[in-house]
Design brief:
Elements (H helix, E strand, L loop, with lengths): L4 E2 L2 H18 L4 E5 L12 H9 L3 E5 L2 E6 L1 H11 L5 E7 L7 E7 L3 H15 L8 E5 L1
Antiparallel strand pairs: 1-7, 2-3, 2-7, 3-4, 4-6, 5-6
Helix pairs in contact: 1-4, 3-4
Length: about 140
């Protein structure tokens, strides 16, 4: 794998596929994709949902052993469930609500080819985390 970031939608999906392939070839425990911090910049200071999301930090998605792992707010979880409706092969396996932090950790069974996983991951960033169509994502751990 020779590149670790992408901005345009098609390039991001290609990055996800390349990162998934590299992750599988290396046999690493998991792959972590992270949105660039600049994608979180917002013009509104009164949006409490944005504030809650900001408390969770930079949006990220992990993939390993056929499972996608994300952290989200309750509102983002509702959106995630809607997105999952577009991907029938993907199912929520586990929801964890740690008492010491806000938000929900979600584990999703993703038994699919890298291209389909890449489509889902991009939808998570764009629809669940409400990021713009053009944003930078990093493969931070492969």
């Amino acid at each position: 794998m020779t590149r670790f970031d992408a901005t345009e939608p098609a390039e991001r999906r290609k990055l996800y596929v390349d990162a998934i392939t590299a992750h599988r070839e290396r046999g690493s425990g998991f792959l972590t994709l992270e949105a660039d911090e600049s994608a979180l910049e917002t013009d509104t200071d009164t949006d409490t949902d944005a504030e809650t999301a900001a408390e969770l930090g930079v949006p990220w998605v992990q993939f390993g052993d056929g499972t996608i792992n994300v952290d989200c707010t309750d509102e983002e979880l509702d959106t995630l469930k809607t997105v999952l409706g577009e991907f029938p092969a993907f199912k929520i396996d586990e929801l964890n609500r740690p008492e010491e932090v806000e938000g929900v950790n979600v584990r999703i069974s993703a038994k699919a080819d890298p291209n389909r996983i890449a489509q889902f991951v991009d939808d998570v960033f764009c629809k669940v985390y409400d990021l713009p169509s053009v944003f930078r994502v990093w493969a931070v751990e492969v």
